[in-house]
Amino acid sequence: MCYMKEIVEDKNLDFSMKWGTRSNLVYTVNDIDEIRAEWAEHVLKFPEN
User: Fold this and answer.
1) Which of 33, 43, 35, 28 is nearest to 6 (CA)?
2) Pairwise CA distance, residues 1 & 40, whole Å
3) Nearest-5° angle of CA 43, CA 14, CA 41?
4) How confident is the model over 1-43, as pLDDT tens digits?
5) Which of 11, 21, 22, 27 would staple 31 via disulfide (CB 3.0–4.6 Å)?
């Protein structure tokens, strides 16, 4: 999820450059927890049907 967020937010549309420079990227547990919290906050905004 962290990597997907970075791809979406990046203004550079050249995906091949992104993949080549990010292939060894490592996320910390704190990074992942932050994205999980953002995702949960976003999902909870949807109305129940």
Assistant:
1) 35
2) 12
3) 10
4) 777 777 778 777 776 666 666 666 788 899 889 999 998 998 8
5) 27
